[in-house]
Amino acid sequence: MNDTSPCDIQDAPAVDGALVLVDTECAICHSRDASLEASGPDFEHDTVPGEFHFVRCRSCEHIYLNPRPSMRDVARIYPPDYYAYSSGGNPIAVWLRRIRETRKVHLYRGAIGEGPRRILEIGCGNGRFLSLLREYGPADWELAGIDFSESAVRQCQAIGLRAQAVRLEDLTSEDGTYDAVVMMHLIEHIDDPRRSCDRVRALLRPGGVFIIETPNVAGLDYRLFRGRWWAHYHFPRHWNLFSTGALQRLLLETGFAIERTDSLINTSSWIISLHNLFLDRGCPDWLVRFCQFQNPALLPPFVLIDFVRLRLGLQTSDQRVIARRRP
Hints:
7-stranded mixed β-sheet; 4-stranded antiparallel β-sheet; 9 helices; 13 strands; 22% strand; disordered N terminus
C-alpha cells in the first residue's frame, strides 16, 4: 500500500484505545455533504475495536470512509499476515490465481509495448505480480516496486526484485522516467487518490500507461451484501470505493485518456462477504472458517456467477482501467 502524506485535517483525539480518526471530504468533488452508506467493524482481521462508516457523496455519489484512520495509525490496521505481504495459500487457489494473473501480463504487455521499458508497481507487496512481469514480460523491461511495508520490500529484494520502502510523493527525482505504472488494488487504500494520480502522471513519460485495478460498486454481490457485509468495504483499510464513472472522471481530470475498461471475475468478494455475514450473525465457527477466500470448494460457483455476468455485458465487483498519459 502506498503511504501518502497526512491529510491537512485536524486529528480527533483517540478514545479508549481506539484509532485516531480524521474527518474528510469526497476525493472526487471535494464536497462534505454525504449520507450514510454502510457501517461495520474490522470483520477480517479484528485489528482495532469499533465500527466504521462509508458515506455516499450527495453531489457526485462517490463512496468513501468517513471518518477514517489518521496516517499515524495506518500501521495498526495492517497486520503482519495481511494477504498482500504473505506468500502461499491453498495450492489450487494459488494455481488458479497464477493463471489469471499470467493472462493479465500478456494484456499489459500489449498495452505497454515491446522493447526497453521502465515499469513501476506502486503497492508491490511481497512482489508476487512483479515476479510475473519478470517471468512473462520482455527480458529488457526494467521493473521496480514501492510499498510502505519494509518487511514486504525485504521479501521483494530477497527474490532479486528492485523495491524500496518509500512514499509515492518522494519519487520526484524519477519524474518523467517511467513507461508504465501499475496499481493493483491500491487506489482504494489511498487517502488522496487525486494527488496520487497527479504524481503518477508526473512519473510517466508522455504517452506512458497507467494500469489500475480496484473494486467496483456495480457487482451483484455489492447489491446483495450492501450496507454492512460486502467484502470490499474492508473496514477500515479501504478508504475510497469507485464506480467506473467516478474512476474515469478522476483519471480524465488528472491528465489521462482512457483506453479500455474491463470488469473482472472476483471470487474473494463473494466468499469474504459470506464470511462477514456469518460472523456478524453469530453462525457456527466452522461455517465462518469455511468461508476462507481461498477455499477451493467455493471458487467454482462464484467464478460461474461472475463469468455469466461478464458474458451478459454486466459489471462485477472488480474493475480494470488502462489509461494513457496525455502530453
